[in-house]
Protein backbone atom coordinates (compact mmCIF):
# COMPACT_ATOMS: atom_id res chain seq x y z
CA UNK A 1 0.00 0.00 0.00
CA UNK A 2 2.81 2.37 0.91
CA UNK A 3 4.54 1.58 -2.38
CA UNK A 4 1.35 2.41 -4.26
CA UNK A 5 0.96 5.74 -2.44
CA UNK A 6 4.62 6.59 -3.07
CA UNK A 7 4.20 5.76 -6.75
CA UNK A 8 1.12 7.99 -7.01
CA UNK A 9 2.99 10.88 -5.35
CA UNK A 10 5.87 10.50 -7.82
CA UNK A 11 3.45 10.50 -10.77
CA UNK A 12 1.64 13.62 -9.48
CA UNK A 13 4.92 15.48 -8.92
CA UNK A 14 6.14 14.50 -12.37
CA UNK A 15 2.95 15.81 -13.95
CA UNK A 16 3.27 19.08 -12.01
CA UNK A 17 6.87 19.56 -13.12
CA UNK A 18 5.99 18.75 -16.74
CA UNK A 19 3.06 21.17 -16.64
CA UNK A 20 5.30 23.92 -15.25
CA UNK A 21 7.87 23.37 -17.97
CA UNK A 22 5.17 23.50 -20.65
CA UNK A 23 3.93 26.87 -19.37
CA UNK A 24 7.43 28.30 -19.48
CA UNK A 25 7.88 27.09 -23.04
CA UNK A 26 4.59 28.76 -24.04
CA UNK A 27 5.71 32.16 -22.71
CA UNK A 28 6.82 34.39 -25.62
CA UNK A 29 10.44 35.46 -25.54
CA UNK A 30 11.08 39.12 -26.40
CA UNK A 31 14.36 40.87 -27.11
CA UNK A 32 14.78 44.57 -26.36
CA UNK A 33 15.83 46.57 -29.41
CA UNK A 34 17.89 49.72 -28.91
CA UNK A 35 16.78 52.73 -30.96
CA UNK A 36 17.81 56.29 -31.69
CA UNK A 37 15.60 59.34 -32.21
CA UNK A 38 16.34 61.15 -35.46
CA UNK A 39 15.13 64.15 -37.46
CA UNK A 40 13.17 64.25 -40.70
CA UNK A 41 16.26 64.91 -42.81
CA UNK A 42 17.81 61.64 -41.64
CA UNK A 43 15.04 59.50 -43.15
CA UNK A 44 16.32 58.26 -46.55
CA UNK A 45 14.08 58.82 -49.57
CA UNK A 46 11.11 59.72 -47.39
CA UNK A 47 11.40 63.35 -46.31
CA UNK A 48 8.38 64.47 -48.30
CA UNK A 49 6.30 61.52 -47.15
CA UNK A 50 7.11 62.38 -43.52
CA UNK A 51 5.76 65.88 -44.12
CA UNK A 52 2.52 64.37 -45.45
CA UNK A 53 2.12 61.60 -42.88
CA UNK A 54 2.48 63.80 -39.81
CA UNK A 55 -1.06 65.16 -40.23
CA UNK A 56 -2.41 61.59 -40.07
CA UNK A 57 -2.64 59.19 -37.14
CA UNK A 58 -0.65 56.01 -37.65
CA UNK A 59 2.85 54.77 -38.39
CA UNK A 60 5.14 54.33 -41.37
CA UNK A 61 8.30 52.24 -41.76
CA UNK A 62 11.17 52.61 -44.21
CA UNK A 63 14.18 50.35 -44.59
CA UNK A 64 17.66 51.04 -45.92
CA UNK A 65 20.03 48.09 -45.72
CA UNK A 66 19.85 46.68 -42.20
CA UNK A 67 18.44 49.91 -40.75
CA UNK A 68 14.75 50.53 -40.12
CA UNK A 69 13.20 54.00 -39.81
CA UNK A 70 9.91 54.19 -37.91
CA UNK A 71 7.63 57.22 -37.75
CA UNK A 72 4.65 57.25 -35.38
CA UNK A 73 2.23 60.17 -35.57
CA UNK A 74 -0.64 61.28 -33.33
CA UNK A 75 -2.20 63.21 -36.19
CA UNK A 76 -3.40 66.79 -36.32
CA UNK A 77 -4.15 68.39 -32.94
CA UNK A 78 -6.08 71.62 -32.27
CA UNK A 79 -3.47 73.17 -29.95
CA UNK A 80 0.01 72.71 -28.56
CA UNK A 81 0.76 70.62 -25.48
CA UNK A 82 0.38 67.26 -27.20
CA UNK A 83 3.38 64.95 -27.48
CA UNK A 84 4.30 61.43 -28.53
CA UNK A 85 7.32 59.29 -27.67
CA UNK A 86 8.61 55.74 -28.11
CA UNK A 87 8.86 53.91 -24.78
CA UNK A 88 10.26 50.59 -25.97
CA UNK A 89 10.84 48.34 -28.97
CA UNK A 90 10.85 44.57 -28.49
CA UNK A 91 11.23 41.78 -31.01
CA UNK A 92 9.74 38.33 -30.54
CA UNK A 93 7.39 35.72 -31.96
CA UNK A 94 8.07 37.12 -35.44
CA UNK A 95 6.66 40.56 -34.57
CA UNK A 96 8.31 43.82 -33.53
CA UNK A 97 6.29 45.31 -30.66
CA UNK A 98 6.54 49.09 -30.22
CA UNK A 99 5.11 50.80 -27.13
CA UNK A 100 4.17 54.46 -27.56
CA UNK A 101 3.44 57.11 -24.94
CA UNK A 102 1.06 59.91 -25.90
CA UNK A 103 0.72 63.08 -23.83
CA UNK A 104 -2.19 65.52 -23.82
CA UNK A 105 -2.12 69.10 -22.51
CA UNK A 106 -3.07 69.70 -18.90
CA UNK A 107 -6.39 71.30 -18.05
CA UNK A 108 -4.84 74.62 -17.00
CA UNK A 109 -1.74 74.54 -19.21
CA UNK A 110 -0.91 77.45 -21.50
CA UNK A 111 -0.36 76.28 -25.07
CA UNK A 112 -0.32 77.69 -28.58
CA UNK A 113 -3.73 77.78 -30.23
CA UNK A 114 -2.25 76.85 -33.62
CA UNK A 115 -2.65 73.39 -35.11
CA UNK A 116 0.15 70.99 -34.13
CA UNK A 117 1.31 67.61 -35.44
CA UNK A 118 3.02 65.48 -32.77
CA UNK A 119 5.19 62.71 -34.20
CA UNK A 120 8.42 60.88 -33.48
CA UNK A 121 10.96 59.15 -35.74
CA UNK A 122 13.42 56.50 -34.58
CA UNK A 123 16.14 54.44 -36.22
CA UNK A 124 17.03 50.87 -35.26
CA UNK A 125 18.08 47.48 -36.62
CA UNK A 126 17.77 43.77 -35.85
CA UNK A 127 13.99 43.34 -36.20
CA UNK A 128 11.68 41.01 -38.09
CA UNK A 129 10.13 43.67 -40.32
CA UNK A 130 6.59 42.93 -39.10
CA UNK A 131 5.37 45.64 -36.72
CA UNK A 132 2.68 46.19 -34.11
CA UNK A 133 2.49 49.72 -32.71
CA UNK A 134 0.38 50.32 -29.60
CA UNK A 135 0.05 53.11 -27.03
CA UNK A 136 -0.16 52.74 -23.25
CA UNK A 137 -3.97 52.57 -23.44
CA UNK A 138 -3.78 49.57 -25.76
CA UNK A 139 -4.81 51.48 -28.88
CA UNK A 140 -3.22 50.01 -32.00
CA UNK A 141 -1.84 52.36 -34.67
CA UNK A 142 -2.67 51.62 -38.31
CA UNK A 143 0.03 51.59 -40.97
CA UNK A 144 0.36 54.55 -43.31
CA UNK A 145 2.65 52.69 -45.73
CA UNK A 146 -0.37 51.31 -47.58
CA UNK A 147 -1.37 54.78 -48.75
CA UNK A 148 -0.73 55.21 -52.48
CA UNK A 149 2.49 57.00 -53.36
CA UNK A 150 2.24 60.58 -54.53
CA UNK A 151 1.76 60.67 -58.29
CA UNK A 152 3.93 62.90 -60.43
CA UNK A 153 2.81 66.51 -60.44
CA UNK A 154 1.18 67.60 -63.67
CA UNK A 155 1.74 71.18 -64.89
CA UNK A 156 -1.92 72.06 -64.37
CA UNK A 157 -1.73 71.05 -60.71
CA UNK A 158 1.06 73.47 -59.79
CA UNK A 159 0.01 76.76 -58.23
CA UNK A 160 2.01 79.96 -58.01
CA UNK A 161 1.39 83.13 -56.07
CA UNK A 162 2.70 85.76 -53.69
CA UNK A 163 2.00 86.45 -50.05
CA UNK A 164 3.39 87.47 -46.68
CA UNK A 165 5.48 85.00 -44.72
CA UNK A 166 4.10 84.85 -41.15
CA UNK A 167 6.55 82.30 -39.74
CA UNK A 168 6.94 78.61 -38.94
CA UNK A 169 4.10 76.60 -37.43
CA UNK A 170 6.38 73.67 -36.61
CA UNK A 171 9.46 71.93 -38.02
CA UNK A 172 7.75 71.15 -41.34
CA UNK A 173 4.98 73.72 -41.67
CA UNK A 174 4.89 77.44 -42.37
CA UNK A 175 2.15 80.05 -42.55
CA UNK A 176 1.79 82.43 -45.48
CA UNK A 177 -0.93 85.03 -45.85
CA UNK A 178 -2.28 84.87 -49.40
CA UNK A 179 -4.98 87.31 -50.53
CA UNK A 180 -5.72 88.22 -46.93
CA UNK A 181 -6.06 84.57 -45.82
CA UNK A 182 -3.49 82.83 -43.59
CA UNK A 183 -2.75 79.40 -45.06
CA UNK A 184 -0.59 76.53 -43.80
CA UNK A 185 1.98 75.00 -46.16
CA UNK A 186 4.04 71.84 -45.70
CA UNK A 187 7.75 72.32 -46.39
CA UNK A 188 10.48 69.70 -45.96
CA UNK A 189 13.72 71.55 -46.67
CA UNK A 190 13.06 74.33 -44.19
CA UNK A 191 16.64 75.48 -43.59
CA UNK A 192 17.41 75.94 -47.28
CA UNK A 193 14.17 77.58 -48.35
CA UNK A 194 13.88 79.91 -45.36
CA UNK A 195 17.57 80.82 -45.15
CA UNK A 196 17.08 84.38 -46.45
CA UNK A 197 13.43 84.97 -45.54
CA UNK A 198 12.25 86.73 -42.39
CA UNK A 199 8.78 87.00 -40.87
CA UNK A 200 6.70 89.76 -42.41
CA UNK A 201 8.49 89.69 -45.76
CA UNK A 202 6.75 89.21 -49.09
CA UNK A 203 7.42 85.88 -50.80
CA UNK A 204 6.66 84.15 -54.07
CA UNK A 205 5.60 80.54 -53.72
CA UNK A 206 5.10 77.54 -55.98
CA UNK A 207 3.11 74.65 -54.53
CA UNK A 208 0.67 71.82 -55.15
CA UNK A 209 -2.13 70.11 -53.23
CA UNK A 210 -1.49 66.48 -52.28
CA UNK A 211 -4.00 63.65 -51.96
CA UNK A 212 -4.79 64.68 -48.37
CA UNK A 213 -5.58 68.27 -49.33
CA UNK A 214 -2.34 69.61 -47.84
CA UNK A 215 -0.47 72.38 -49.61
CA UNK A 216 3.07 71.20 -50.42
CA UNK A 217 5.77 73.79 -51.15
CA UNK A 218 7.84 73.25 -54.29
CA UNK A 219 9.81 76.48 -54.09
CA UNK A 220 9.77 79.58 -51.91
CA UNK A 221 11.66 82.81 -52.58
CA UNK A 222 11.75 86.37 -51.33
CA UNK A 223 9.54 88.55 -53.54
CA UNK A 224 11.22 91.78 -54.63
From TrEMBL:
GO terms for biological process: proteolysis. Transmembrane segments: none annotated. Keywords: Hydrolase, Protease. Residues 69-124 form the PrcB C-terminal domain. PROSITE patterns: PROKAR_LIPOPROTEIN (PS51257). GO terms for molecular function: peptidase activity. This is Protease complex subunit PrcB family protein. The lineage of its organism: Bacteria, Bacillati, Bacillota, Clostridia, Eubacteriales.
Amino acid sequence: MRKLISLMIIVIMSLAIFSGCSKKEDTPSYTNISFQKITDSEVPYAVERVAEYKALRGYAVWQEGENYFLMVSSGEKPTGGYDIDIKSIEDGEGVTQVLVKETVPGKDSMNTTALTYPYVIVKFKGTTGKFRIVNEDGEVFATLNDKPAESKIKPGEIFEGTGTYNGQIDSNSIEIEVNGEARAFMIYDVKDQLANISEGERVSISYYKNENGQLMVISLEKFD
